[in-house]
Amino acid sequence: MLLLSGRDIMYPEKEEIMKKNMGIIDRSIRILLAAAVALFYFTGQLTGIAAVVLGAIAVIFILTSVIGVCPLYYPLGISTRKKG
Asked: 5 in a domain, yes or no?
């Protein structure tokens, strides 16, 4: 008989919650794209709605690159991380 404590229910193993699914190349490309958006924004070449939309995407790219997890990859069954 398997007994679960309250701690097991509230705090499952980290691997069960977020398994890394982004490889180093994927992460690097996302950071470079975010840096390009920042460069265009701060030089005044990117303004208006485009700046807001691309800025939000750039922030998402940086966050996903730092943690190594892309939530959109899960339902699509994609992983750019090397096996092993």
From this structure: no
